Amino acid sequence: MSPGRQLRELIAKRKFLVTPGLTTPLHAMIVERAGFEIVYTGGYDVSLTLFGLPDVGLITATEMVANARNIARAVKVPVIADVDTGYGNALNVIRTVQDYESAGVAAIHIEDQVHPKKCGHVAGKQLISREEAVGKLRAAIDRKADKDFVIIGRTDAIAAAGGGLDEAIARGRAYADAGCDLVWAEFPSASLEQPRQFAQAMRQTHPELPLYFNYSANLNWAEHPASFEEIATLGFKVMHVSLCGMRTTMQAMWDYAVNLRQSGAQAEIEFQKQLSKHPMGKFHELARFPEFKALEEKYLPNEIFQARYEGAFGL
Amino acid sequence: MVTMKSAGAKLRDLMARPKFIPALGVWDPYTARLAERMGIECVHLGGYQLGARFVTPEPLLSLTEVATTTHYITSAVNIPLVVDVGAGFGEPLHVMRCVKEIEKAGAAAIQMEDQIYPKRAHYHKGIEHVIPREEMVAKIKAARAARTDPDFVIIGRTDAMRTDGYEEGIARANLYFDAGADMVMVFPNNLEEAKQAPRDAKGPLAYTNSEGNRLPRPTFTTQQYQDMGYKLASYPTALLCPATQEMKRIIANILTRGESGIPRENMVVWRKEVEDLIGLEEAYKIESETVEH
C-alpha cells in the first residue's frame, strides 16, 4: 500500500488524527513508538534544528527532501511534509511533488505565499495571486504519479498583507475546487472563532472536504483552551501540534547543559539514573543494535561472526 | 610557509592581465579537468549545462545542487571556477546564503543576474522579466557583504539590454559597478551594441558566447573579444552540444550496426587518455606501495 493510500485510509477510518510536529528520523521513531499513527515534519523545525537558520526560505528543496526521505525511511506510519511554497512557481512545484513522492512521504502541504517565503506566524507575509496559487496546486495534482498521494492546499491569506478571512475562505474554496485533498488555513490567534467561521463556510460549499488544522506552538492556547475533539468537531480532520520535536529537545538539552556546567560529572550520573527508568533509556534498542547483530549472525560467515564477538566487550 | 592563493585571487590575477579570459562552460569535474589539462585557465559552471547534467531546465536547480557540483569541480581542478547562480535564489537574504555556500565550495566567483526569482524557463527563448534596478543593487551589496574572502569575485549580470534596450542595460551595468560588482555580464542585441558596450561601461564586461542562440546576438573569437575590450566570456554550449552529437553517433552505431564503430587501436589510446585524466596511474602506485605488494 502506498503511503498516500495508508494516510487516506486512516483519514476515512478515524474521527480525527493528531500528531506532534517533528524534525528528525529519531523524533519520528519516538512518536511512532508512542502510538501516533501519522508523523508531521515542518519547515521551521528543519531550518533551526538542522541548519541553525530562521524559517525564511533559506533551506533548499534538495535539503528538505533529503530530510523527509530519511524520516519516511525510519517509520512505517505515513509522513506529512511541509514543502513551503513548493520552492518556486508551478514548474518548481512539479519537480517538488515528484521528489517528495519518490522520497516515500504520504502528503505535502503547499502554501500561497510569495517565494521566498516567511514563517506562517511572523509578519511580512505576501500572497501570490489566487490564480497563480490555483495553477500551482493544479500542477501538483496533475503531475503526481500515485493518485493517492495527498496534496494539502494551505492559505496564509488571513494574516497576509491585503488578505483577511473572506479572502482565505475564497482561496480555500478555490483550492478545494482545484482538487486538493485537504485544505488548511493559517489562523493568527488561538481563539476558535475564525476556525469556526472558516470551517462553516467551507462546509457550505464543500461538505465532504476534510480540513487540516495547525495547533501552532506560536499561539497562546492557555487563553483559549480547546480540546482536539472540539477542534475536530468543527470539521478539522487532521491536525498537528507544531515544533514539538524542536521545543522539547531544546528544553531538555538546555537543562542538561546547565546542569553539566554547574555540577560536572554528578549531573551525568543523575541523568543516567533518571534515564534508566525512562522508556527512552534503552536507546540502543530503539537504534535496533540487537536486530542488526541478529542479521550479522544470519548472513555473515560463522567464523567471521564468531571472531567479531567472542570475548569482545560492548553492546 | 607557502600561502595558498584563494580561488578568487587566482581569478583576479587573470583579470589583471590585458588578456581576454575564455571561461569554458563545464558541468562536472571531468569536463573541468579536461579543460584544465588542455590549457584553459578559467572554467564556468553555467545553469544551462548544469540543468542538462540534472536533465532539468535551469530554473528548477536548487542551491544545494549548484553548490555540490561546485565543490566536486573545485576539488578536481586548480584553475578558478565561475559559478552561475541564476537570480541568487531569492532576495538579499537568500543571496547571502548562496554566496557563503558557493564560496565555501571553492569557487572563484559568482555570476548573478537581475531576472525575477523564481526564474522561468522562457528566458531561454528570449522572453525575460527583470527586477527593478534598486532590488538588484541591494542583492549585489548583499553578495559583497556575505563573501569572507575579499578576493571572491562578484559578477553582476543584466538581462535588461534584451528587455528594455541598450541604454537601460548600460545604465544598470554601471549601477552594478557602483554597488560593488567586480565585473558585469551584458547581453547586447546586435553587433553595434556589442562593440559599444565596453566603451560605455565603467568596469570590465563579460559576454556570453552562446553559440547556437536563436537571437541576433553575435558571437566572436577570443581575439575579437579582446580587441573590443571584453574581459571574459562564458561558453555554455561549446562543449555540451557537440559532445551530445558525438554520443548520439556512437549510440546509433551500437543500435544499428551492433558495435560502436571505433577502431580498436584508437580506443586503446583514448581509454588510456581517460585513465590518465582521472589519475589511475597514481592510484596504482599508491596501492603497490601499501596494500598490493
Describe the 3D structure.
The complex is a heterodimer of chains A (315) and B (293). In chain A, helix 2 (25-33) packs parallel to helix 4 and helix 6 (130-143) runs parallel beside helix 7 (165-178). Helix content of chain A is 50%, strand content 12%. Chain A folds into two domains: 3-242, Alpha-Beta Barrel (TIM Barrel), CATH 3.20.20; 282-315, no CATH class. An eight-stranded parallel barrel of chain A has the order 1-2-3-4-5-6-7-8, surrounded by nine helices. The relative contact order of chain A is 0.11. By secondary structure, chain A is of the alpha/beta class. Chain A contains 14 helices and eight strands. Chain B is of the alpha/beta class. Chain B folds into two domains: 7-241, Phosphoenolpyruvate-binding domains (TIM Barrel, Alpha-Beta Barrel), CATH 3.20.20; 244-289, no CATH class. Chain B has 13 helices and eight strands. Chain B has an eight-stranded parallel barrel with strand order 1-2-3-4-5-6-7-8, surrounded by seven helices. In chain B, helix 2 packs parallel to helix 4, helix 5 (92-104) packs parallel to helix 6 and helix 6 (133-146) packs parallel to helix 8 (166-179). Chain B is globular, with a radius of gyration of 20 Å. Chains A and B meet through helix 4 and helix 5 of A and helix 4 and helix 5 of B.
